[in-house]
């Protein structure tokens, strides 16, 4: 690979990193209400519930079972969020792989001049589509977790 091609690839990689950072920032912003619900509301309920489990009249096994039952809503919510975000990341990753495949095919066909622009356009569209899906994911999570509208 010549020097110019290497510089172009570095530039594309840097732009891609910035775009991926945009998605991360958007996801964190969109999910903040859901995360607050899980990290504060559900955790608080868990600790209050678990605290009530510690009664001297109970056997150790009963206390352990009680505490375990208290943790179910938090664990369920965390799993739900993790699964939704894993699916989101997988869809985005597949979209970006299509962009990469198109770029590699264009390079093989010696259409390098337009390949970088086409890849950047493809990545931009994939990122935009992904960010537009976030509110729908958040709505689904809020419905599943019975979180009221803010």
Describe this protein's structure.
The protein has 150 residues and is mostly helical. It has one domain. Helices cover 89% and strands 0% of the residues. It is built from 3 helices and no strands. The mean pLDDT is 90.
Could you spell the SSE succession in H and E letters? HHH
Largest sheet: none
Number of domains: 1
Radius of gyration: 23 Å
Give the structural class: mainly alpha
Residue windows where pLDDT falls under 50 for at least 5 positions: none
Helix amount: over 70%
Give the overall silhouette: elongated
N-end to C-end Cα span: 53 Å
Strand fraction: under 5%
Number of strands: 0
- Mean pLDDT, to the nearest integer, reads 90
The number of helical runs is 3
Q: Summarize this, please?
A:
With 150 residues, the chain is an all-alpha fold. Helices cover 89% and strands 0% of the residues. It has one domain (31-143).
Keywords:
single chain; about 150 residues; mainly alpha
Give the helices and strands, then pairings.
Layout: H1 3-53, H2 60-108, H3 112-144
Helix pairs in contact: 1-2, 1-3, 2-3
């Amino acid at each position: 690979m010549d020097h110019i091609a290497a510089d172009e690839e570095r530039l594309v990689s840097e732009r891609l990193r910035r775009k991926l950072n945009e998605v991360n920032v958007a996801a964190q912003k969109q999910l903040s209400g859901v995360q607050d619900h899980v990290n504060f509301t559900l955790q608080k309920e868990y600790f209050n519930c678990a605290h009530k489990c510690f009664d001297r009249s109970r056997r150790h096994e009963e206390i352990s079972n009680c505490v375990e039952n208290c943790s179910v809503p938090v664990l369920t919510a965390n799993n739900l969020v993790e699964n939704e975000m894993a699916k989101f990341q997988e869809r985005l990753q597949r979209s970006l792989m299509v962009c990469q495949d198109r770029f590699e095919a264009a390079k093989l066909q010696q259409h390098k001049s337009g390949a970088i622009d086409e890849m950047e356009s493809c990545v931009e569209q994939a990122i935009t589509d992904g960010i537009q899906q976030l509110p729908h994911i958040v709505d689904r999570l809020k419905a599943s977790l019975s979180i009221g509208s803010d």
